[in-house]
Amino acid sequence: xxxxxxxxxxxxxxxxxxxxxxxxxxxxxxxxxxxxxxxxxxxxxxxxxxxxxxxxxxxxxxxxxxxxxxxxxxxxxxx
Length: 79
Known about the structure:
This protein has strands spanning about 10-15, 20-25, 50, 55-60. By secondary structure, the chain is mainly β. The strands form 2 sheets. A two-stranded antiparallel ribbon has the order 1-4. A two-stranded antiparallel sheet has the order 2-3. The mean pLDDT is about 95.
C-alpha cells in the first residue's frame, strides 16, 4: 500500500451542504483537492466518504495526516 502524499501544508476551506455525500481524498494525488478524482487507483488507499451534518463552511485536511479525518486538526503545523 502506498503512503499518502501531502497535497498542501494547510487546510482546504470547503462549503458543504447538509445531507450531501462528499469523498475526501486520502491519498493526496487528486487534482480536485480536497475531494477524490480517482487518482488513488492502485495505491491501496480509498477516499473517505462523509455526509455533511449541516450546511456550513468547514476546513478539510490538506496534509493527509489529520487524526480527525476529513477535518483539519492542525497536524500540518508540525510537518
